[in-house]
Design goal:
Chain A: Keywords: Cell inner membrane, Cell membrane, Membrane, Phosphate transport, Transmembrane, Transmembrane helix, Transport. Chain A: It is found in: Cell inner membrane; Cell membrane. The complex is a heteropentamer, with 1 copy of chain A (486 residues), 1 copy of chain B (444 residues), 2 copies of chain C (271 residues) and 1 copy of chain D (328 residues). Chain A has a two-stranded antiparallel sheet. Chain A is an all-alpha fold. The two termini of chain A are 57 Å apart. The radius of gyration of chain A is 32 Å and the shape is flat. Chain A folds into 2 domains: 185 residues, no CATH class; 245 residues, MetI-like fold, CATH 1.10.3720.10. In chain A, a hairpin with a 7-residue loop joins strand 1 and strand 2. By secondary structure, chain B is mainly α. In chain B, 67% of the residues lie in helices and 5% in strands. The longest helix of chain B is centred in the first third of the chain and has 39 residues. Chain B is elongated, with a radius of gyration of 31 Å. In chain D, strands 1, 2, 3, 4, 8, 9, 10, 11 and 13 form a 9-stranded mixed sheet that branches. In chain D, a hairpin with a 2-residue loop joins strand 6 and strand 7. The chains are: A mainly alpha (486), B mainly alpha (444), C alpha/beta (271), D alpha/beta (328). The interface between C and E is large, with 41 and 41 residues. The complex binds adenosine-5'-triphosphate (2 copies), magnesium ion (2 copies) and phosphate ion (PO4). One magnesium ion binds next to helix 2 of chain E.
């Protein structure tokens, strides 16, 4: 049975289990005259969960393990002699898999049955051509051993999948039957299924942790390699970022960190006031017509590809700032600048602030507003002094999200602020950010095992730690000023 | 005494004292600022949309050449036996002369006064044309020797001429097109051989190489993006909401949950390319999933979207007044029931906002796809799901990114066209969420 | 019969209006919540230096009328108010009138206590702050203390002024809201069942406060306790199903009401 | 776990080679019974890294590269079991200097560029910080226009070519090399490095993006002069005016003949172990270097690739699957 | 003196416990909000088929004690409950006990009416639904109607069952919450000032309901009205500053209390 149909069968069994469980709960309760502990649906749910969840977990594990096991077995069948020079066993295995996959089609087309294959009676000649006929392409002719391995592979896979079907369905049925038998009015079915669900909730929240672990793992080794080639003190404390193609680069993170902070700061300077004002206006001033139009419209800003913003910065905003502000004021004549990128990026992250804050502001109970109005507060006083403090945690979350997006942005920075790492206070100068350099060092022409490329990992890890510190700070602030209504 | 109060205060009520006037001025300012902010936001959107639409709408129209082509057996089937294997030996290079000859014949028949040689004249037709002919001939070997009417793409420069991108003046300088060729195009147009019409192919065709901007479409990219978004939505929404519910409602308040909280906020700040690094390491190198496949892209984007949804959901859950929970618990609802029956529906607007914004971000992201091999030139359509999740595919933002890097200016229009498609895709995707959100919104 | 009584009341009212010193007057006040009408052409005046009690069965429109007087119904999306209401002879719905000023002059204590999610101190200090009533920190402290004292809460909270107002008991929250309203010294105070969660002693404190305030201000109080109405008010108005049944001197109302419904209600005989 | 068998060729690497690779891939898909190869772009370095990750279906088959593979990459390959790789040179990429079409005409020498962008130049026999503001400060017959150059960022292979073939050559030509050597006590390496040290006052702008970005920047700064690939320039002759270098105008012919000095070879690297495993791989490689594709009259040349005069040798090597020898 | 009285009360209680039919018993119950102690070793039993009234000045811990009985204090983050509370002899803090089941058996009407932001019908139907008390739609309709009727709200809302429960008047919300609690037929009903926003007639209805319920259930009611306590309850407990002052038959309490404080409170003499 194919995986899809196993899943389908398990799901059908779960539905059947639900119905049976529910019915059994009702009938036992009627028969014994005892009240059910939980709603009958919960009894059904326990059966359904016991049918589906373990079986599907076993299925997933099996799917993961079976190829590894079979492969190990078949690998051993391939003698070294048939492995081409310069090739590898793993590549021969590719052929094995290909042939195994094609054999079904060959058998079907030639109207052969399994026996021929198992008994080695199948005509080995012209395997490649015959497989090609059924649409399976092989890179070259294969030796007999490989073909035999493929046959074994196919057999094992077949037995494996029969085994899998049997085991999975057996588990589903057994646990289903067990949980069905277990049903009696006293059974705390709601608690059972709620515990099940709570386990799922916990599992979901561990994904965030796993992601972090994954990120750290995928960065830390190459970062270590980098620091083996490049002194850490230089990386952390040098104020020069000047990678060279040939090596001998200066890779100080400070100008990049500065650029990151500066650009993000400008972007937040744009996005936070505008976004918050939008949120406030939409939540507390605007009519429902304007609100239902403006909110989704502004959300589109977050979905416009950043390249559009980048080009806008490069072609329109940059030259405008240069010609109308920077040059007349003698602040430089660069068309790419921190201000350009910051302004444009600020526009992009407006919806992060506005939409999320709007929801939170909207959720502050009306009684809070009434209380303030009745004291003769104006609407703006009410908002500033009562609503915003009450909505603070959510708003800080929204701002953090916006800041995060600003830190992670590349295209707008590249096109708006340039690629030059510089440590400067003048917002009309070109600067660049850590994220931009992670991308550019990682995708460049330089060889991989050089500090110039590996620095990307060190930059990533440093940024990770840095933002972690900022987030701890933010959490502390929220805790300190949080106001819980009711 | 009361009269005195009434008199003075009556006046006060009308005009207010200086302080009240100041407060009112502040109120008006605040309100104006709000309106201004909304106007700014909408204006920015309108401006950006205008620039996208004005440069991209033209990609939905395309110039075609409709012409009769003689399928010359002397070229296509030298052996004369119509053997498919022999026919397949003739490559697309072999088909180019058919077009050249037929066009020359047409020009001759209709008495055009263009002095253009057959070679430069044939450059009016897209480099895609021979491939179309070849496919047709291999499918219909019996048509060899016949004259068949074909509907072929005009080359990018000619197409640009009718969209205003190429002018006689620019053609003077352009080494890829000459004014004479443009004049010939005008004559062909007059004769009805050249027509400009709506371009479905742009939505369905796969990407094309740099030499054929006119043939490039977003078909594969739409599929790739759709597959990825399916995966993102199916994973990040339930997992994100589940995780938020656990953290906000069930988890004990201790250093560990603080750690998770900070950690999630921090994941949001991880640059998207780092998620690409993670995806490469975890899904391709460790789990052995294929390169360039929507399954990997979807998983990476789902991980990337998760923090956004979690942060939005948690904020929304936090905003639901505790009295609602007490009310439910008071009638004997379990915590789980109180949350799923009352709290989550009330937090729904925030959850949906998180989803909208998270998906918007995921849909437009290129950087993480770079590392898992999806920023690629892909011409074959992925199969239907679930197998198709494992086939190579491209994505809409990737197509935009790739096309903005190409040399031929015709791709600028295509890139903007792809952005339009992306935005429409985004709107369609979010429409349900937006409508739902409006239904769930309420004050209490 | 209703109609007749109402017409009579109205005429009587109009006659009186010229003589009596009214602080606020509602004329033909009707309120609709969406399609549903909650108040029917109510004519009722609030006199200077007088406590007016609103009584009537639950859901009859007392709170609704009260909210009309300082236009709190504006904040309810689907509520519509018609008729004319004046404060010191000025129409409060006049476009010229400043609703903020109005509410500063006509304070309100809500039926459900709604402390801000701030400290107890900040809850009380909020009003004086926005109206600039205090000259400095010590001045503000002074206002906060005296307001809390007036509401009879000072003794209980003086050691925890900087803890959250939402962490108080139900009755304490109610008194906090009274203190908050009193702190801005409004000319008219609307109190919607201010003692519903209070024990007899705390109730006595609040009633004392009301008595005290009356010397300078006008007070409208909604109450379900006939005793309380009799104790604190000089005028009483009886509502029923959205109609003003009658309004008269409290003494008269409780001894010899004009309307049968009033009599029944006071005797606890219908509902 | 193991994935299903892969039947399309996977290619990754240089964005410079990408247009050519995709032209070939497209034609390959049209003319052969194999699926169209998937061509990723991600930079030469990343492509070679992926190539050297090992053999097996979930690794790529071919890495495109705009610069030659380095010994350290080869070592990585070896360490991961990728023992045999073929180096295939597909032609040359011309690097041109171009400015806005409406601006003045430029006739450069490498020495001009060095004088314009180096951080230290010789002025009146003294080594000084670069004082040149306008091109005419360098040579009076150059236009009187502020110097503003958009050059590839340091991650680009093009930058290396620019540094070596323009700046370093220019440094030697205008005598700064000698002065620097003297200043560095005769240390030639140090002098070379100093030669290629560019000024950081905003006159020379690194471009981390691609040529379209350079073009847009020239659009925004009409004074700017950008560095482009020949094929990109050829697609935009109506917007860009190309400068001559040493009196030679860049074109496919002048570069092929070696007259125009600034160019670099383009490569791709094939994992030999995959040749008999991934269907169509050998055909693709042969098709790429066939005369039909990579010859002087083929579509690649038409798009701006300078075809390799030694193409026949490459075709031979490809047919024999000759692995690359040690780097020389 | 306090100590002595308490000790005496405790002994008396223990002596009685063996004889009397207790539904719930709290032993040495203390509650802390953070560092602040709100209840001090309270020993109090709730008898079967009895109405117990909790009285005491505002902020003395009545609601706090009430919330202990169905473990609603669990939901307050910084609240800590110590001591032992039993329901039918079973410790309600026992890990084995299911707090949900506990709350289904021990229903609660909160001091501040807190209807769900759903329709009136859904507000009442929610409890029966999650407990599976109705066999079908008509059964459920039946429960909703009878519950609303018991709470004296049916007449007012029968035409607007599907409008929002939050759009009701204060007193109507309060009765809605009573109906909601009654709908699940709990064995013990905890009512925190259930009539605070009700007029005399509505109050009488609720008192009637309480009287009716007593035949099958146990009821604990917090009230500030001595009259109400006297009318509806058989046992009365007096709290003061977090301490249980005394508990006795209502008749006894109101005529001849043991403790001076009780006497003072009932006479309205302190606070
Ligand atoms: N969540 C809380 N956090 C901190 N303190 C609290 C909290 N809830 C109540 N308190 C305090 O505990 C004490 C007892 O409160 P409780 O609500 O039990 O009083 P009560 O007797 O019900 O008063 P009332 O009649 O006013 O409702 C009060 O001093 C109150 O301020
Ligand atoms: N926001 C609202 N939306 C719809 N109807 C409402 C709203 N507020 C009140 N009502 C209805 O209007 C009528 C009058 O309500 P109001 O609150 O004025 O009563 P009340 O006299 O204050 O009663 P109570 O003594 O119970 O507080 C009631 O029938 C009530 O259901
Ligand atoms: Mg009311
Ligand atoms: Mg209380
Ligand atoms: O992408 P490149 O490696 O050619 O710069």
């Amino acid at each position: 049975m194919s995986v899809g149909s196993i899943v389908l069968v398990v799901l059908v069994l779960a539905v059947v289990g639900y119905v049976l469980g529910r019915r059994r709960a009702l009938s036992t309760s009627a028969a014994t005259g005892t009240r059910l502990h939980s709603l009958p649906g919960y009894y059904g749910q326990t059966v359904a969960l016991f049918v589906a969840v373990p079986a599907l977990l076993v299925l997933a594990a099996w799917l993961f393990a079976q190829p590894i096991l079979i492969e190990n077995r078949v690998r051993g069948m391939i003698p070294d002699s048939v492995i081409p020079e310069g090739g590898a066993r793993s590549l021969v295995m590719a052929d094995v898999r290909n042939i195994a996959g094609g054999l079904d089609a060959v058998l079907r087309r030639d109207a052969l049955n399994e026996d021929a294959l198992v008994n080695g009676n199948l005509d080995f000649s012209n395997v490649r051509v015959r497989l090609a006929d059924v649409g399976v392409a092989l890179g070259s002719d294969v030796p007999r051993e490989v073909f035999d391995a493929a046959v074994t592979y196919r057999q094992s896979a077949k037995y494996g999948s029969i085994g899998m079907t049997v085991v999975v369905l057996a588990i589903a049925l057994a646990l289903g039957a067990w949980s069905l038998m277990r049903i009696k009015p006293k059974l705390r079915a709601r608690n059972v299924s709620e515990n099940f669900i709570q386990a799922l909730l916990i599992a979901s929240s561990t994904i965030a942790i796993l992601t972090t672990v994954g990120i750290i793992f995928s960065l830390v080794f190459e970062t270590a390699n980098f620091f083996r080639m490049y002194p850490a003190s230089e990386f952390f404390f040098s104020t020069v970022w000047n990678p060279q193609f040939r090596g001998g680069s200066d890779l100080g993170i400070i100008p990049l960190l500065w650029g990151t902070l500066y650009v993000s700061f400008v972007a937040l300077l744009v996005a936070v006031p505008i976004g918050l004002m939008i949120a406030i206006y939409l939540a507390d001033y605007a009519g429902s017509r304007l609100r239902s139009f403006a909110k989704p419209a502004i959300e589109i800003l977050a979905g416009i590809p950043t390249i559009v913003y980048g080009l806008f910065a490069l072609i329109t905003v940059g030259p405008f700032l240069r010609d109308w502000i920077a040059q007349p004021m003698g602040l430089g004549n660069s068309s790419s600048s921190v201000l350009t990128a910051g302004l444009v990026m600020g526009v992009m992250i407006i919806p992060f602030v506005s939409s999320l804050s709007d929801d939170i502001i909207n959720a502050v109970p009306q009684a809070m507003r009434d209380g303030s109005f009745a004291l003769g507060a104006t609407q703006s006083e009410t908002i500033k002094k009562v609503i915003l403090p009450a909505a603070l945690p959510g708003i800080v979350g929204a701002i953090l999200l916006a800041a995060s997006r600003a830190i992670g942005e590349t295209m707008i920075v590249v096109l708006g602020a340039g690629a030059a790492a510089r440590l400067d206070l003048n917002p009309f100068e070109a600067m660049t950010t850590i994220t931009v350099k992670i991308v550019s060092q990682l995708t460049g022409d330089t060889e991989f095992a050089s500090p110039e490329t590996l620095v990307a990992f060190a930059l990533g890890l440093t940024l990770f730690v840095f933002t972690l510190a900022l987030n701890v700070l933010a959490l502390y602030i929220v805790r300190k000023y949080r106001e819980q209504y009711e | 005494m009361t009269d005195a109060i009434a008199a003075t205060q009556g006046k006060a009520a009308l005009s207010g004292d200086a302080r009240t006037r100041r407060r009112h001025a502040a109120e008006r300012r605040f309100r104006m600022m709000g309106l201004l902010a909304v106007a700014l936001g909408v204006l920015a959107l309108v401006g950006l949309l205008f620039s996208i639409l004005s440069s991209g709408l033209s990609s939905f129209r395309q110039t075609y050449v409709t012409m009769d082509i003689y399928l010359d057996p002397g070229i296509l089937d030298k052996a004369g036996n119509r053997n498919p294997e022999d026919l397949a030996k003739v490559t697309t290079f072999g088909y180019a002369p058919l077009i050249k000859n037929s066009l020359a014949k047409a020009m001759n028949d209709k008495g055009f006064n263009s002095q253009l040689e057959a070679g430069p004249a044939a450059e009016l037709v897209s480099a895609e044309a021979p491939a179309i002919l070849r496919r047709y001939v291999l499918n219909n070997p019996d048509q060899i020797g016949e004259t068949v009417e074909f509907n072929l793409l005009a080359s990018g420069r000619i197409d640009g001429y009718y969209k205003g991108r190429v002018t006689m003046a620019s053609a003077e300088l352009d080494r890829n097109i000459s004014p004479e060729q443009l004049q010939l195009a005008d004559e062909l147009k007059e004769a009805g051989i050249l027509t400009t019409r709506f371009n479905w192919d742009f939505l369905t065709a796969p990407d094309a190489s740099d030499t054929r901007p006119e043939a490039a479409g977003v078909g594969v990219a739409i599929l790739g993006s759709a597959y990825m978004m399916l995966i993102v939505l199916a994973l990040s929404l339930p997992i994100g909401v589940a995780a938020s519910i656990y953290l906000e409602e069930f988890a004990p308040q201790n250093w560990f949950t603080d750690l998770i909280e900070v950690n999630i906020a921090n994941l949001a700040a991880v640059p998207s390319i780092v998620f690409g690094i993670l995806g490469l390491a975890a899904f391709i190198n460790f789990a052995g999933l294929p390169q360039s496949a929507p399954i990997v892209g979807g998983l990476v984007l789902a991980l990337m979207t998760l923090p956004t949804i979690i942060i939005a959901t948690r904020a929304a859950l936090k905003a639901v007044p505790p009295s609602i929970r007490s009310a439910a618990l008071g009638v004997g609802a379990s915590k789980m029931q109180a949350i799923f029956h009352h709290v989550v529906p009330l937090a729904m607007p925030g959850i949906l906002t998180g989803t909208i914004i998270g998906l918007a971000q995921a849909l437009g992201e290129t950087a993480p796809l770079l590392l898992i091999g999806m920023v690629a030139f892909v011409r074959d359509y992925p199969a239907a799901p679930p197998e198709g999740f494992f086939d190579p595919a491209s994505a809409l933002p990737v197509q935009v990114y790739n096309w903005t890097q190409r040399g031929d200016p015709a791709f600028v229009e295509r890139a903007s066209g792809a952005i339009i498609v992306l935005l429409v895709f985004l709107l369609l995707m979010n429409l349900i969420a937006i409508i739902l959100r409006r239904r769930f919104e309420r004050r209490w | 019969m209703n109609m007749l009584t109402e017409a009579a009341t109205e005429k009587a009212l109009e006659r009186k209006m010229s003589e009596i010193n009214y602080k606020m007057v509602g004329k033909d006040v009707s309120v609709y919540y969406g399609d549903k009408r909650a108040l029917f052409d109510v004519n009722l005046g609030v006199r200077n230096n007088t406590v007016t009690a609103l009584i009537g069965p639950s859901g009859c429109g007392k709170s609704t009328f009260l909210r009309c007087l300082n236009r709190m119904n504006d904040t309810i999306a689907n509520a519509k108010v018609t008729g004319k209401i004046t404060l010191d002879g000025q129409d409060i719905h006049d476009p010229d009138i400043d609703v903020v000023e109005l509410r500063a002059r006509v304070g309100m204590v809500f039926q459900k206590p709604n402390p801000f999610p701030k400290s107890i101190y900040e809850n009380v200090a909020y009003g004086p702050r926005i109206h600039g009533l205090a000259r400095g920190k010590s001045d503000l402290d002074q206002i906060v203390e005296s307001s809390l004292q007036k509401a009879g809460l000072w003794a209980e909270v003086k050691d925890r002024l900087h803890e959250a107002g939402t962490g108080l008991s139900g009755g304490q929250q109610q008194r906090l809201c009274i203190a908050r309203a009193v702190a801005v010294s409004p000319e008219v105070i609307l109190m919607d069942e201010p003692c519903s969660a209070l024990d007899p002693i705390a109730t006595a404190k609040v009633e004392e406060l009301i008595h005290e305030l009356r010397t300078n201000y006008s007070i409208v109080i909604v109450t379900h306790s006939m005793q309380q109405a009799a104790r604190v008010s000089q005028r009483t108005a009886m509502f029923h199903l959205g109609h003003l049944v009658e309004e008269d001197d409290t003494d008269k109302m409780f001894t010899n009401p004009n309307d049968q419904r009033t009599q029944d209600y006071i005797m606890g005989r219908f509902g | 776990g193991a994935a299903a068998a892969r039947d399309q060729i996977q290619i990754a690497g240089s964005s410079t080679v990408l247009p050519y690779a995709s032209i070939v891939a497209e034609a390959f898909g049209e003319n052969f019974d194999h699926p169209t190869p998937v061509v990723e772009s991600g930079g030469s370095g990343a492509g070679r890294k992926k190539l050297c990750e090992g053999v097996g279906e979930n690794t790529i088959d071919i890495a495109n590269s705009s610069s030659r593979i380095s010994q350290s990459d080869i070592d990585t390959c070896k360490a991961n079991g990728v023992n045999e790789i073929q180096e295939v040179r597909i032609g040359y990429d011309g690097i041109v200097f171009a400015s806005d079409i409406n601006g003045p005409e430029y006739k450069f020498t490498p020495a001009d560029w060095h004088a314009a962008l180096a951080s230290k130049v010789v002025k009146d026999g003294q080594l000084v910080d670069n004082p040149n503001k306008n091109w005419s400060d360098i040579r009076s017959d150059l236009p009187d226009q502020p110097i503003l150059a958009f050059i590839p960022g340091t991650k680009h292979g093009t930058r290396e070519v620019f540094d070596e073939k323009v700046i370093l050559t220019g440094c030697e030509e205008n005598g700064t090399m000698e002065a620097l050597k003297a200043a560095n006590n005769g240390d030639e390496d140090a002098a070379e490095d100093a030669c290629m040290d560019l000024r950081t006052d905003g006159v020379s702008v690194d471009i981390d993006g691609d040529y379209t970005e350079t073009l847009s920047r020239i659009d925004a700064n009409k004074n700017g002069i950008g560095v482009f690939g020949l094929s990109f320039y050829q697609n935009n002759t109506d917007k860009l005016r190309v400068a001559t270098m040493g009196g030679v105008e860049p074109s496919v012919e002048t570069i092929a003949s070696g007259e125009y000095p600034v160019s670099r070879p383009l490569y791709f690297y094939v994992k030999n172990a995959h040749l008999d495993v991934i269907p169509g791989l050998q055909e693709y490689v042969e098709f790429f270097v066939s005369d039909d594709m990579a010859g002087p009259n083929g579509p690649l040349a038409a798009y701006g690739l300078v075809s390799d005069p030694e193409l026949a040798k490459t075709q031979e090597a490809v047919k024999n699957r000759t692995p690359m020898g040690p780097l020389n």
